[in-house]
Amino acid sequence: MSSQQLTSDIFYVGARDWDRRLFDELIPLPDGTTYNAYLIKGSEKIALLDTVDPAKEQVLFSNLEKLNLPRIDYVISHHAEQDHSGAIPAVLKKYPMANIVTNPKCRMFLSEHLLIPDEKFIVIKDRETLSLGNKTLQFIFTPWVHWPETMSTFFIEDGILFSCDFFGSHLSTSEVFSADSAKVYSSAKRYFAEIMMPFRPIVRQNLEKVKSLDVKMIAPSHGPVHRDPNFIISAYEDWTSDRVKNEVVIPYVSMHGSTETMVNYFVDLLTERGVTVLPFNLSKTDIGELAMALVDAATVVIGSPTVILGAHPVVAHAVFLTNFLRPKTRYISIIGSYGWGGKMIEQLSGMIGNLTAEILPPVIAKGYPKDADFQALVGLADRILEKHQHLS
Ligand code: FEO
Q1: Does residue 179 surpass a pLDDT of 90?
Q2: Domain 5-240: CATH architecture, name and number where available
Q3: CATH superfamily entry for domain 248-385
């Protein structure tokens, strides 16, 4: 069996994108990514599970050609986002016998985005099965992992879950299976933070669906395949839970040193109190690292100088992202400085409507922080410690 096979009849035919450094023109990809596609040879039918980003179409075709396929009967489309569906039109051209198997919502998206004709679709229902002869595929609807139409396929006889973005990671490796579990954990957590965290309650429901199946292997559409499904399922149980950790995330920017002085002083205060602190200087930070830190932290303290009348725009961007990622943050506060006035507190408080966090009293210094400001930071650190002592 080749290193690019999952089993004797399942072949990895996807593409590695080692050099890609940005996804959706937003998400940093320090380790590139992969667009995983799998080819299953049944005794009667041949199915291709997802395709690849159009930029890597030739890699998919080269992998398929090596298998000397007489035809492809089914293209299972789990998700209409183009990193998985973008090569479908080219596949249909090259393998004209193929039909697309997908759910009603995904069919609609594929029609709208890729202009695929209606007669090419076989539309399936949740839990419906499709026989390949000696093997059976069962479709499990797992909405919002990442888009509302996203689904998974369970390969019943072998217990393999093809989970699409669910359980994935932007991590390019030459091996199909995960080898470095610490690296995979970290990349999968980053992926969860960036893609899944806004939908945490429904991701948790989907996790329960997956746990009800006899899953022996999980093959996502990005990053390595998990030979041990419990590894990634238990990580997702932790990330999707309501539990928070004794951690404070401090995304901040400082222009002339006042806010940085406050942040450094505050970091020391929290550290002395046994609180784990994760400061992110936003002018240097990879926002994926910030997103990851938001998965667990009980508290976020935003640090910003006042620019004209509001927060520094780089801070406003980070707060906007935090609000749309909907982390399970329990407490939030603001520290920073101003020159002649402004409405930074009102502005930032008005940007976090998606969060259910309690706002702790901000500490804003006029110019460089003075004794009273440092004392106020002591008060805020004590308040956070008290709150964290009662985390459940
Ligand atoms: Fe990997 Fe949501 O596409």
Answers
A1: no
A2: 4-Layer Sandwich (3.60)
A3: Flavodoxin domain (3.40.50.360)
